[in-house]
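Large-conductance mechanosensitive channel
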Amino acid sequence: MSILQEFKTFAVKGNMIDMAVGIIIGAAFGKIVSSLVGDVIMPPLGIIIGGVDFSDLAVTLKAAEGEAPAVLLAYGKFIQTIIDFVIIAFAIFMGIKVINKLKREEEAAPAAPPAPTKDQELLSEIRDLLRAQQNK
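Structure:
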C-alpha cells in the first residue's frame, strides 16, 4: 500500500472527520467564550474591583534605549489569562452539568410498559368471560 493510499484511508475515516468538526466547533466556542469574558464579564468585574485593568500591570526589566523597546515582565497579562481560564472553565463546567442533567432526565424517563403477549390477552379474555358468567 502506497503512502498516498494510506493517507487517504487515514484522512477519510469517520473519526478523523468527527475530530475535525469538533476542533472547528471548539474554536468557534472558544471565540464565543472569549467574547463573553472580555466584553460582558470583565467590564463589570473591573468596575467592582476599582477599574483595575490587569493587562497593563508590568515591571520594566530594562528601559527603552534608542530604537530598542523596553523589556517588560507583563505579569498583568498573565493574571488576566488566569482569570479568563477560570471563567471559561466554569462556563464549560456549567454547560456540561446542564447536558448531564438532561441526559439523566432522559434516562430516568420510564419506558412504556411492554404490550401484553398474545397469551396474556387470551387469558385476560377468558378471565373476563368467567367473571361475566359468575355474575349472572
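Residues 1-49 form one domain.
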